[in-house]
Amino acid sequence: MQDQQVDLTVSVERTGPGEVVARVSGELDIRTVSPMLGALGGLVGDDSLELIRLDLSGVEFCDHAGLRALNTLGMTAGAGRVCIVAAHPSVDMILRLCGLRTFLGHVAGAAACTS
Predict the structure, then answer these.
(1) Residues paired with residue 24 on neighbouring β-strands, in sequence order
(2) Among 4, 24, 58, 92, which residue carries the largest CB count within 10 Å?
(3) pLDDT(112) > 50
């Protein structure tokens, strides 16, 4: 069996008291959701963080597994703690195709978090 390279990077930057920005780039699919959730899972469990801002502007591909993982992240963190602040046009497209006008505070085509 061939070991497939995971095409995903996650970087986290503290932007203020109780806030971080997590920049995700690459492909968010069935192969990469576990590494992403692993990288961000500690943030969700950190009670000192009030807001986790997700920058998905570098996510060039996202499938249903990626959307499900993002939803799981948001539900695990609790209402309003995870917010998408930027999204690649391909993520906007999948949100529109799925009929999701708002997803984790992000409105397709919007540049900023709405919550």
Answers:
(1) 10
(2) 24
(3) no
